[in-house]
Protein backbone atom coordinates (compact mmCIF):
# COMPACT_ATOMS: atom_id res chain seq x y z
CA UNK A 1 0.00 0.00 0.00
CA UNK A 2 2.88 2.31 0.82
CA UNK A 3 4.35 1.61 -2.59
CA UNK A 4 1.05 2.33 -4.28
CA UNK A 5 0.51 5.50 -2.27
CA UNK A 6 4.03 6.70 -3.01
CA UNK A 7 3.57 5.94 -6.66
CA UNK A 8 0.31 7.82 -6.70
CA UNK A 9 1.79 10.70 -4.79
CA UNK A 10 4.40 11.23 -7.45
CA UNK A 11 1.81 11.74 -10.16
CA UNK A 12 -1.07 13.90 -11.18
CA UNK A 13 -4.59 12.63 -10.26
CA UNK A 14 -5.77 13.53 -13.75
CA UNK A 15 -3.18 11.18 -15.22
CA UNK A 16 -5.31 8.26 -14.04
CA UNK A 17 -8.33 9.56 -15.92
CA UNK A 18 -7.17 10.88 -19.28
CA UNK A 19 -6.41 8.48 -22.13
CA UNK A 20 -2.70 7.86 -22.72
CA UNK A 21 -1.26 7.02 -26.08
CA UNK A 22 0.35 3.57 -26.11
CA UNK A 23 1.33 3.55 -29.77
CA UNK A 24 0.36 5.18 -33.05
CA UNK A 25 -1.18 3.56 -36.09
CA UNK A 26 -0.68 4.96 -39.57
CA UNK A 27 0.01 8.40 -40.83
CA UNK A 28 -2.55 10.12 -43.03
CA UNK A 29 -1.99 12.82 -45.55
CA UNK A 30 -4.35 15.41 -44.20
CA UNK A 31 -4.04 18.25 -41.75
CA UNK A 32 -5.21 17.57 -38.21
CA UNK A 33 -8.72 18.93 -37.90
CA UNK A 34 -10.57 20.30 -34.89
CA UNK A 35 -13.96 21.87 -34.37
CA UNK A 36 -15.10 22.76 -30.89
CA UNK A 37 -14.37 19.75 -28.69
CA UNK A 38 -13.93 17.46 -31.73
CA UNK A 39 -10.44 16.56 -32.90
CA UNK A 40 -9.28 14.47 -35.84
CA UNK A 41 -5.57 13.76 -35.78
CA UNK A 42 -3.53 12.78 -38.82
CA UNK A 43 -2.72 9.45 -37.17
CA UNK A 44 -4.67 6.91 -35.12
CA UNK A 45 -3.55 7.02 -31.51
CA UNK A 46 -4.02 3.67 -29.78
CA UNK A 47 -4.74 4.82 -26.22
CA UNK A 48 -5.17 3.17 -22.83
CA UNK A 49 -8.93 3.71 -23.17
CA UNK A 50 -8.95 1.93 -26.52
CA UNK A 51 -7.09 -0.95 -24.91
CA UNK A 52 -9.71 -1.08 -22.14
CA UNK A 53 -12.48 -1.10 -24.75
CA UNK A 54 -10.69 -3.96 -26.49
CA UNK A 55 -10.29 -5.88 -23.21
CA UNK A 56 -13.98 -5.38 -22.45
CA UNK A 57 -14.94 -6.60 -25.90
CA UNK A 58 -12.62 -9.61 -25.48
CA UNK A 59 -14.15 -10.48 -22.12
CA UNK A 60 -17.65 -10.20 -23.51
CA UNK A 61 -16.72 -12.33 -26.53
CA UNK A 62 -15.47 -15.03 -24.19
CA UNK A 63 -18.15 -14.93 -21.48
CA UNK A 64 -21.41 -14.48 -23.36
CA UNK A 65 -21.01 -17.07 -26.15
CA UNK A 66 -20.05 -19.58 -23.47
CA UNK A 67 -23.21 -18.69 -21.56
CA UNK A 68 -25.33 -18.89 -24.69
CA UNK A 69 -23.94 -22.22 -25.86
CA UNK A 70 -26.22 -24.30 -23.68
CA UNK A 71 -28.65 -22.01 -21.96
CA UNK A 72 -30.32 -24.11 -19.27
CA UNK A 73 -33.99 -24.19 -18.45
CA UNK A 74 -33.17 -23.79 -14.75
CA UNK A 75 -29.99 -21.71 -14.46
CA UNK A 76 -27.51 -22.54 -11.72
CA UNK A 77 -24.21 -21.05 -10.57
CA UNK A 78 -22.68 -18.67 -13.11
CA UNK A 79 -25.71 -19.05 -15.37
CA UNK A 80 -27.98 -18.02 -12.51
CA UNK A 81 -25.85 -14.94 -11.83
CA UNK A 82 -25.90 -13.79 -15.44
CA UNK A 83 -29.51 -14.83 -15.90
CA UNK A 84 -30.46 -12.48 -13.07
CA UNK A 85 -28.57 -9.69 -14.83
CA UNK A 86 -30.16 -10.50 -18.21
CA UNK A 87 -33.63 -10.58 -16.71
CA UNK A 88 -32.99 -7.38 -14.76
CA UNK A 89 -32.02 -5.53 -17.93
CA UNK A 90 -34.86 -7.07 -19.93
CA UNK A 91 -37.67 -6.66 -17.42
CA UNK A 92 -36.41 -3.77 -15.29
CA UNK A 93 -34.72 -1.55 -17.85
CA UNK A 94 -36.01 -2.34 -21.34
CA UNK A 95 -39.58 -3.60 -20.85
CA UNK A 96 -41.01 -0.42 -19.22
CA UNK A 97 -39.85 1.67 -22.20
CA UNK A 98 -40.04 -0.75 -25.13
CA UNK A 99 -43.02 -2.90 -24.11
CA UNK A 100 -43.92 -5.21 -27.04
CA UNK A 101 -40.74 -4.29 -28.95
CA UNK A 102 -38.47 -5.37 -26.06
CA UNK A 103 -37.13 -8.63 -27.45
CA UNK A 104 -36.36 -7.08 -30.86
CA UNK A 105 -33.82 -4.78 -29.24
CA UNK A 106 -32.52 -6.96 -26.43
CA UNK A 107 -29.21 -7.93 -28.12
CA UNK A 108 -28.45 -4.22 -28.59
CA UNK A 109 -29.57 -3.27 -25.07
CA UNK A 110 -27.67 -6.14 -23.43
CA UNK A 111 -24.53 -5.33 -25.41
CA UNK A 112 -24.79 -1.68 -24.41
CA UNK A 113 -25.43 -2.40 -20.73
CA UNK A 114 -22.68 -4.97 -20.26
CA UNK A 115 -20.22 -3.04 -22.40
CA UNK A 116 -20.59 0.04 -20.17
CA UNK A 117 -20.80 -1.96 -16.95
CA UNK A 118 -17.68 -4.03 -17.62
CA UNK A 119 -15.77 -0.92 -18.69
CA UNK A 120 -16.86 0.84 -15.49
CA UNK A 121 -15.92 -2.13 -13.31
CA UNK A 122 -12.56 -2.63 -15.02
CA UNK A 123 -11.89 1.02 -14.29
CA UNK A 124 -12.28 0.43 -10.57
CA UNK A 125 -9.72 -2.37 -10.59
CA UNK A 126 -6.18 -1.04 -9.95
CA UNK A 127 -4.92 -2.61 -13.18
CA UNK A 128 -2.67 0.32 -13.98
CA UNK A 129 -1.04 0.25 -10.55
CA UNK A 130 -0.45 -3.50 -10.84
CA UNK A 131 1.00 -3.09 -14.34
CA UNK A 132 3.27 -0.34 -13.05
CA UNK A 133 4.51 -2.52 -10.21
CA UNK A 134 5.07 -5.55 -12.47
CA UNK A 135 6.24 -4.07 -15.79
CA UNK A 136 7.36 -0.60 -14.63
CA UNK A 137 5.13 0.76 -17.38
CA UNK A 138 2.43 3.19 -16.27
CA UNK A 139 -0.73 4.40 -18.04
CA UNK A 140 -1.34 1.17 -19.90
CA UNK A 141 -4.81 0.80 -18.42
CA UNK A 142 -7.46 3.21 -17.31
CA UNK A 143 -11.21 3.77 -17.16
CA UNK A 144 -12.49 3.92 -20.70
CA UNK A 145 -15.87 5.34 -19.67
CA UNK A 146 -14.07 8.21 -17.90
CA UNK A 147 -12.95 9.36 -21.35
CA UNK A 148 -15.22 11.67 -23.31
CA UNK A 149 -14.19 10.15 -26.64
CA UNK A 150 -15.44 6.69 -25.61
CA UNK A 151 -18.68 7.96 -24.06
CA UNK A 152 -19.23 10.16 -27.14
CA UNK A 153 -18.80 7.05 -29.28
CA UNK A 154 -21.35 5.19 -27.19
CA UNK A 155 -23.77 8.12 -27.28
CA UNK A 156 -23.33 8.28 -31.06
CA UNK A 157 -24.32 4.64 -31.29
CA UNK A 158 -27.47 5.43 -29.32
CA UNK A 159 -28.14 8.46 -31.52
CA UNK A 160 -27.78 6.45 -34.73
CA UNK A 161 -29.74 3.49 -33.34
CA UNK A 162 -32.64 5.65 -32.13
CA UNK A 163 -33.13 7.47 -35.42
CA UNK A 164 -32.46 4.42 -37.58
CA UNK A 165 -35.01 2.41 -35.63
CA UNK A 166 -37.53 5.26 -35.81
CA UNK A 167 -37.13 5.67 -39.57
CA UNK A 168 -37.29 1.90 -40.17
CA UNK A 169 -40.47 1.71 -38.10
CA UNK A 170 -42.06 4.47 -40.19
CA UNK A 171 -41.00 2.70 -43.40
CA UNK A 172 -42.58 -0.50 -42.09
CA UNK A 173 -45.80 1.38 -41.43
CA UNK A 174 -45.76 2.84 -44.93
CA UNK A 175 -45.35 -0.66 -46.31
CA UNK A 176 -48.34 -1.76 -44.28
CA UNK A 177 -50.29 1.00 -46.03
CA UNK A 178 -49.46 -0.54 -49.39
CA UNK A 179 -46.38 1.42 -50.41
CA UNK A 180 -43.17 -0.32 -51.39
CA UNK A 181 -39.58 0.32 -52.44
CA UNK A 182 -38.27 3.85 -52.55
CA UNK A 183 -41.73 5.32 -52.08
CA UNK A 184 -42.08 3.64 -48.70
CA UNK A 185 -38.52 4.56 -47.74
CA UNK A 186 -38.95 8.22 -48.70
CA UNK A 187 -42.32 8.62 -47.06
CA UNK A 188 -41.13 6.75 -43.98
CA UNK A 189 -38.11 9.02 -43.70
CA UNK A 190 -40.24 12.16 -43.98
CA UNK A 191 -42.91 10.75 -41.66
CA UNK A 192 -40.32 10.08 -38.97
CA UNK A 193 -39.06 13.66 -38.92
CA UNK A 194 -42.60 14.97 -39.20
CA UNK A 195 -43.68 12.89 -36.19
CA UNK A 196 -40.81 14.25 -34.13
CA UNK A 197 -42.86 17.42 -33.72
CA UNK A 198 -45.80 17.17 -31.31
CA UNK A 199 -49.13 17.67 -33.01
CA UNK A 200 -50.69 21.13 -32.45
CA UNK A 201 -54.11 21.51 -34.09
CA UNK A 202 -55.19 24.38 -36.27
CA UNK A 203 -53.35 27.32 -37.84
CA UNK A 204 -51.25 27.72 -34.71
CA UNK A 205 -49.82 24.26 -35.31
CA UNK A 206 -48.80 25.21 -38.85
CA UNK A 207 -47.17 28.41 -37.61
CA UNK A 208 -45.39 26.71 -34.75
CA UNK A 209 -44.22 23.71 -36.75
CA UNK A 210 -40.85 25.15 -37.95
CA UNK A 211 -39.93 26.35 -34.46
CA UNK A 212 -40.94 23.12 -32.84
CA UNK A 213 -39.09 21.15 -35.50
CA UNK A 214 -35.88 23.08 -34.83
CA UNK A 215 -36.37 22.60 -31.08
CA UNK A 216 -36.88 18.87 -31.56
CA UNK A 217 -33.75 18.67 -33.71
CA UNK A 218 -31.77 20.44 -30.99
CA UNK A 219 -33.33 18.06 -28.46
CA UNK A 220 -32.32 15.06 -30.59
CA UNK A 221 -28.71 16.29 -30.54
CA UNK A 222 -28.75 17.23 -26.87
CA UNK A 223 -29.93 13.82 -25.76
CA UNK A 224 -26.80 11.89 -26.83
CA UNK A 225 -24.66 14.81 -25.69
CA UNK A 226 -26.22 14.54 -22.21
CA UNK A 227 -25.72 10.77 -22.27
CA UNK A 228 -22.04 11.15 -23.09
CA UNK A 229 -21.38 13.91 -20.55
CA UNK A 230 -23.30 12.14 -17.76
CA UNK A 231 -21.40 8.88 -18.04
CA UNK A 232 -18.05 10.60 -18.55
CA UNK A 233 -18.50 13.09 -15.68
CA UNK A 234 -19.69 10.50 -13.17
CA UNK A 235 -16.92 8.05 -13.90
CA UNK A 236 -14.25 10.74 -14.13
CA UNK A 237 -15.28 12.55 -10.94
CA UNK A 238 -15.25 9.39 -8.84
CA UNK A 239 -11.80 8.42 -10.02
CA UNK A 240 -10.40 11.92 -9.51
CA UNK A 241 -11.70 11.98 -5.93
CA UNK A 242 -10.30 8.51 -5.27
CA UNK A 243 -6.91 9.34 -6.75
CA UNK A 244 -6.78 12.63 -4.83
CA UNK A 245 -7.62 10.91 -1.56
CA UNK A 246 -4.93 8.29 -2.15
CA UNK A 247 -2.41 10.99 -2.93
CA UNK A 248 -3.13 12.56 0.43
CA UNK A 249 -1.88 9.43 2.21
CA UNK A 250 1.91 10.09 2.00
CA UNK A 251 1.40 13.78 2.76
CA UNK A 252 -0.77 13.12 5.79
CA UNK A 253 1.67 10.47 6.91
CA UNK A 254 4.53 12.94 6.83
CA UNK A 255 2.57 15.39 9.00
CA UNK A 256 0.54 13.14 11.36
CA UNK A 257 2.28 9.79 11.11
CA UNK A 258 -0.20 6.98 10.28
CA UNK A 259 -3.40 8.07 12.09
CA UNK A 260 -5.00 10.31 9.47
CA UNK A 261 -3.37 8.36 6.64
CA UNK A 262 -5.08 5.19 7.89
CA UNK A 263 -8.40 7.01 8.07
CA UNK A 264 -7.90 8.18 4.48
CA UNK A 265 -7.09 4.65 3.28
CA UNK A 266 -10.21 3.29 4.98
CA UNK A 267 -12.16 6.17 3.45
CA UNK A 268 -10.80 5.20 0.04
CA UNK A 269 -11.91 1.61 0.54
CA UNK A 270 -15.42 2.79 1.45
CA UNK A 271 -15.40 5.16 -1.51
CA UNK A 272 -14.51 2.23 -3.77
CA UNK A 273 -17.79 0.59 -2.70
CA UNK A 274 -19.57 3.79 -3.67
CA UNK A 275 -17.75 3.71 -7.00
CA UNK A 276 -19.02 0.18 -7.51
CA UNK A 277 -22.54 1.49 -7.03
CA UNK A 278 -21.88 4.41 -9.37
CA UNK A 279 -20.56 1.98 -12.01
CA UNK A 280 -23.80 -0.01 -11.84
CA UNK A 281 -26.05 3.05 -11.73
CA UNK A 282 -24.37 4.73 -14.68
CA UNK A 283 -24.65 1.58 -16.81
CA UNK A 284 -28.30 1.37 -15.78
CA UNK A 285 -29.03 5.04 -16.54
CA UNK A 286 -27.31 5.03 -19.93
CA UNK A 287 -29.14 1.87 -20.98
CA UNK A 288 -32.47 2.99 -19.55
CA UNK A 289 -32.32 6.34 -21.36
CA UNK A 290 -31.34 4.56 -24.57
CA UNK A 291 -34.40 2.34 -24.16
CA UNK A 292 -36.60 5.39 -23.55
CA UNK A 293 -35.31 7.10 -26.70
CA UNK A 294 -35.77 3.95 -28.78
CA UNK A 295 -39.23 3.44 -27.29
CA UNK A 296 -40.19 7.00 -28.22
CA UNK A 297 -38.80 6.54 -31.75
CA UNK A 298 -40.65 3.26 -32.30
CA UNK A 299 -43.94 4.60 -30.96
CA UNK A 300 -43.95 8.32 -31.82
CA UNK A 301 -47.69 8.54 -31.09
CA UNK A 302 -46.84 8.10 -27.41
CA UNK B 1 -6.50 21.64 16.17
CA UNK B 2 -6.29 24.72 13.93
CA UNK B 3 -2.78 23.73 13.03
CA UNK B 4 -3.98 20.32 11.88
CA UNK B 5 -6.78 21.87 9.80
CA UNK B 6 -4.34 24.33 8.23
CA UNK B 7 -1.95 21.53 7.36
CA UNK B 8 -4.72 19.43 5.82
CA UNK B 9 -5.89 22.39 3.75
CA UNK B 10 -2.35 22.95 2.58
CA UNK B 11 -2.06 19.31 1.60
CA UNK B 12 -5.30 19.53 -0.43
CA UNK B 13 -4.08 22.70 -2.09
CA UNK B 14 -0.87 20.92 -3.02
CA UNK B 15 -2.80 18.02 -4.55
CA UNK B 16 -5.06 20.43 -6.43
CA UNK B 17 -2.07 22.27 -7.85
CA UNK B 18 -0.82 18.99 -9.34
CA UNK B 19 -3.97 18.44 -11.34
CA UNK B 20 -3.65 21.51 -13.46
CA UNK B 21 -6.48 22.54 -15.71
CA UNK B 22 -9.11 19.84 -16.23
CA UNK B 23 -9.22 20.24 -19.95
CA UNK B 24 -5.57 19.50 -20.64
CA UNK B 25 -3.06 16.97 -19.42
CA UNK B 26 0.63 16.51 -19.92
CA UNK B 27 0.46 13.64 -22.42
CA UNK B 28 -1.64 15.57 -24.84
CA UNK B 29 -4.81 13.56 -23.97
CA UNK B 30 -7.27 16.34 -23.49
CA UNK B 31 -10.00 15.61 -21.01
CA UNK B 32 -12.84 17.52 -22.61
CA UNK B 33 -11.85 16.82 -26.19
CA UNK B 34 -13.49 14.18 -28.34
CA UNK B 35 -10.92 12.35 -30.40
CA UNK B 36 -12.87 11.16 -33.42
CA UNK B 37 -10.51 8.22 -33.94
CA UNK B 38 -11.22 6.96 -30.44
CA UNK B 39 -14.95 7.59 -30.80
CA UNK B 40 -14.98 5.84 -34.17
CA UNK B 41 -12.95 2.98 -32.75
CA UNK B 42 -15.46 2.61 -29.91
CA UNK B 43 -18.33 2.58 -32.39
CA UNK B 44 -16.56 0.02 -34.59
CA UNK B 45 -15.73 -2.27 -31.66
CA UNK B 46 -19.26 -1.97 -30.35
CA UNK B 47 -20.85 -2.75 -33.73
CA UNK B 48 -18.60 -5.77 -34.29
CA UNK B 49 -19.30 -6.92 -30.73
CA UNK B 50 -23.03 -6.47 -31.25
CA UNK B 51 -23.02 -8.44 -34.49
CA UNK B 52 -21.00 -11.33 -33.04
CA UNK B 53 -22.80 -11.49 -29.73
CA UNK B 54 -26.24 -11.20 -31.34
CA UNK B 55 -25.51 -14.31 -33.34
CA UNK B 56 -23.43 -16.36 -30.93
CA UNK B 57 -24.75 -15.39 -27.53
CA UNK B 58 -27.83 -13.26 -27.24
CA UNK B 59 -29.98 -15.08 -29.76
CA UNK B 60 -29.56 -18.45 -27.99
CA UNK B 61 -29.97 -16.72 -24.63
CA UNK B 62 -33.18 -15.01 -25.63
CA UNK B 63 -34.45 -18.26 -27.16
CA UNK B 64 -33.62 -19.98 -23.87
CA UNK B 65 -35.46 -17.30 -21.95
CA UNK B 66 -38.46 -17.58 -24.29
CA UNK B 67 -38.40 -21.34 -23.92
CA UNK B 68 -38.36 -21.00 -20.14
CA UNK B 69 -41.13 -18.41 -20.25
CA UNK B 70 -43.24 -20.69 -22.41
CA UNK B 71 -42.57 -23.55 -20.03
CA UNK B 72 -43.51 -21.41 -17.03
CA UNK B 73 -46.60 -20.07 -18.83
CA UNK B 74 -47.68 -23.57 -19.83
CA UNK B 75 -47.00 -24.87 -16.34
CA UNK B 76 -48.95 -21.98 -14.89
CA UNK B 77 -51.86 -22.58 -17.24
CA UNK B 78 -51.73 -26.30 -16.50
CA UNK B 79 -51.62 -25.55 -12.79
CA UNK B 80 -54.60 -23.23 -13.16
CA UNK B 81 -56.46 -25.86 -15.16
CA UNK B 82 -55.60 -28.50 -12.59
CA UNK B 83 -56.67 -26.22 -9.81
CA UNK B 84 -60.01 -25.50 -11.47
CA UNK B 85 -60.43 -29.21 -12.11
CA UNK B 86 -59.50 -30.00 -8.52
CA UNK B 87 -61.92 -27.39 -7.26
CA UNK B 88 -64.67 -28.82 -9.44
CA UNK B 89 -63.78 -32.30 -8.26
CA UNK B 90 -63.72 -31.12 -4.67
CA UNK B 91 -67.17 -29.63 -5.11
CA UNK B 92 -68.35 -32.85 -6.70
CA UNK B 93 -66.89 -34.91 -3.87
CA UNK B 94 -68.31 -32.57 -1.28
CA UNK B 95 -71.69 -33.00 -2.97
CA UNK B 96 -71.21 -36.72 -3.00
CA UNK B 97 -70.13 -36.70 0.61
CA UNK B 98 -73.17 -34.67 1.53
CA UNK B 99 -75.40 -37.06 -0.44
CA UNK B 100 -73.66 -40.04 1.21
CA UNK B 101 -74.16 -38.41 4.57
CA UNK B 102 -77.87 -37.93 3.80
CA UNK B 103 -78.09 -41.48 2.53
CA UNK B 104 -76.35 -42.78 5.62
CA UNK B 105 -78.77 -40.85 7.80
CA UNK B 106 -81.63 -42.30 5.79
CA UNK B 107 -80.18 -45.79 6.11
CA UNK B 108 -79.72 -45.36 9.84
CA UNK B 109 -83.24 -43.99 10.15
CA UNK B 110 -84.60 -46.84 8.05
CA UNK B 111 -82.60 -49.36 10.06
CA UNK B 112 -83.97 -47.84 13.21
CA UNK B 113 -87.47 -48.13 11.81
CA UNK B 114 -86.84 -51.72 10.68
CA UNK B 115 -85.38 -52.53 14.06
CA UNK B 116 -88.43 -51.02 15.73
CA UNK B 117 -90.74 -53.02 13.45
CA UNK B 118 -88.73 -56.16 14.10
CA UNK B 119 -88.73 -55.51 17.82
CA UNK B 120 -92.50 -55.12 17.75
CA UNK B 121 -92.86 -58.23 15.61
CA UNK B 122 -90.60 -60.22 17.91
CA UNK B 123 -92.50 -58.91 20.92
CA UNK B 124 -95.81 -59.79 19.27
CA UNK B 125 -94.52 -63.22 18.33
CA UNK B 126 -93.21 -63.75 21.83
CA UNK B 127 -96.50 -62.59 23.24
CA UNK B 128 -98.37 -64.91 20.86
CA UNK B 129 -96.07 -67.79 21.73
CA UNK B 130 -96.51 -67.18 25.40
CA UNK B 131 -100.27 -66.97 25.01
CA UNK B 132 -100.22 -70.14 22.97
CA UNK B 133 -98.12 -71.85 25.60
CA UNK B 134 -100.43 -70.61 28.32
CA UNK B 135 -103.48 -71.80 26.38
CA UNK B 136 -101.87 -75.16 25.76
CA UNK B 137 -100.93 -75.42 29.38
CA UNK B 138 -104.49 -74.56 30.29
CA UNK B 139 -105.81 -77.12 27.88
CA UNK B 140 -103.43 -79.78 29.19
CA UNK B 141 -104.40 -78.85 32.74
CA UNK B 142 -108.07 -79.19 31.73
CA UNK B 143 -107.44 -82.57 30.14
CA UNK B 144 -105.45 -83.68 33.19
CA UNK B 145 -108.27 -82.48 35.42
CA UNK B 146 -110.86 -84.31 33.32
CA UNK B 147 -108.74 -87.48 33.38
CA UNK B 148 -108.21 -87.12 37.06
CA UNK B 149 -111.96 -86.61 37.57
CA UNK B 150 -112.70 -89.60 35.42
CA UNK B 151 -110.28 -91.73 37.42
CA UNK B 152 -111.80 -90.34 40.53
CA UNK B 153 -115.32 -91.16 39.31
CA UNK B 154 -114.25 -94.67 38.35
CA UNK B 155 -112.60 -95.21 41.66
CA UNK B 156 -115.58 -93.73 43.45
CA UNK B 157 -117.94 -96.02 41.49
CA UNK B 158 -115.85 -99.03 42.31
CA UNK B 159 -115.82 -97.98 45.89
CA UNK B 160 -119.54 -97.44 45.88
CA UNK B 161 -120.12 -100.81 44.27
CA UNK B 162 -117.94 -102.57 46.79
CA UNK B 163 -119.71 -100.70 49.55
CA UNK B 164 -123.04 -101.65 48.15
CA UNK B 165 -122.01 -105.28 47.77
CA UNK B 166 -120.92 -105.35 51.29
CA UNK B 167 -124.16 -103.76 52.30
CA UNK B 168 -126.35 -106.08 50.31
CA UNK B 169 -124.18 -109.10 50.95
CA UNK B 170 -124.86 -110.39 47.61
CA UNK B 171 -123.30 -110.62 44.29
CA UNK B 172 -124.52 -108.14 41.73
CA UNK B 173 -125.04 -109.21 38.11
CA UNK B 174 -123.19 -107.23 35.45
CA UNK B 175 -126.42 -105.54 34.47
CA UNK B 176 -127.01 -104.43 38.02
CA UNK B 177 -123.49 -103.37 38.25
CA UNK B 178 -123.81 -101.20 35.12
CA UNK B 179 -127.10 -99.70 36.28
CA UNK B 180 -125.73 -98.88 39.68
CA UNK B 181 -122.64 -97.32 38.18
CA UNK B 182 -124.68 -95.15 35.83
CA UNK B 183 -126.83 -94.03 38.68
CA UNK B 184 -123.81 -93.25 40.74
CA UNK B 185 -122.30 -91.26 37.88
CA UNK B 186 -125.49 -89.38 37.40
CA UNK B 187 -125.59 -88.52 41.00
CA UNK B 188 -121.96 -87.58 40.91
CA UNK B 189 -122.51 -85.36 37.85
CA UNK B 190 -125.29 -83.58 39.65
CA UNK B 191 -122.91 -82.73 42.48
CA UNK B 192 -120.93 -79.44 42.32
CA UNK B 193 -117.27 -79.78 41.10
CA UNK B 194 -114.38 -80.01 43.57
CA UNK B 195 -112.71 -76.78 44.65
CA UNK B 196 -109.17 -78.17 43.90
CA UNK B 197 -109.97 -78.96 40.24
CA UNK B 198 -110.46 -75.30 39.46
Concise overview:
The complex is a heterodimer of chains A (302) and B (198). Chain A has 302 residues and is mainly α.
Account of the protein in words:
The complex is a heterodimer of chains A (302) and B (198). Chain A is mostly helical. Chain A has one domain (2-298). Chain A has helices at 2-9, 48-69, 78-98, 102-124, 127-135, 148-176, 181-196, 202-256, 259-298, and strands at residues 21-25, 33-35, 38-40, 44-47. Chain A has a two-stranded antiparallel ribbon. Chain A has a two-stranded antiparallel ribbon with strand order 2-3. In chain A, a hairpin with a 2-residue loop joins strand 2 (33-35) and strand 3 (38-40). Chain A is globular and about 75 Å long. By secondary structure, chain B is mainly alpha-helical. Chain B has one domain. Chain B has helices at 2-19, 36-168, 174-190, and one strand at residues 34-35. Chain B is rod-shaped and about 185 Å long. Chain B starts with a helix and ends in an 8-residue tail after the last helix. Mean pLDDT of chain B is 82; it is low at 18-29. At the A-B interface, strand 3, strand 4, helix 2, helix 3 and helix 4 of A face helix 1, strand 1 and helix 2 of B.
How many structural domains of chain B? 1
How many structural domains of chain A? 1
Q: What strand order characterises the main sheet of chain A?
A: 1-4
Fraction in beta strands of chain A: under 5%
- Quaternary state reads heterodimer
Amount of helix of chain A? over 70%
Structural class of chain A: mainly alpha
The number of strands of chain B is 1
Q: Indicate the overall shape of chain B.
A: rod-shaped
Count of extended strands of chain A: 4
Order of helices and strands of chain A: HEEEEHHHHHHHH
Main sheet specs of chain B: none
The residue ranges of chain B in which pLDDT falls below 50 over 5 or more consecutive positions are: 18-29
Poorly predicted runs of chain A: 1-7
Q: In one word, what is the shape of chain A? A: globular
Beta-strand content of chain B: under 5%
Compute the average pLDDT of chain A: 88
Amino acid sequence: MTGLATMLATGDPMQHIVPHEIFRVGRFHFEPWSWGPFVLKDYIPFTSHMLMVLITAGLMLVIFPLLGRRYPMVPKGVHAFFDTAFEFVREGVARPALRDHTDRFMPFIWTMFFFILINNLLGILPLDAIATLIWRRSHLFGTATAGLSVTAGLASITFIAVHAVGILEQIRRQREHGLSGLGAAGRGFVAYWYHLVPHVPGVLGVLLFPFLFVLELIGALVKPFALAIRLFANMMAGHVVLASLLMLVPILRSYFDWELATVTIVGCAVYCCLELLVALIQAYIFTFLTCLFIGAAVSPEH
Amino acid sequence: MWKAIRRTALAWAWVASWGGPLWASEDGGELLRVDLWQAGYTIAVFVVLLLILSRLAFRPIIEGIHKRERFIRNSFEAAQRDRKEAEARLKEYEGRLLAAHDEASKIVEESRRDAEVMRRRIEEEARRNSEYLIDRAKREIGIARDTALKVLYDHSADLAVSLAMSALKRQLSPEDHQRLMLDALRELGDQPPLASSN
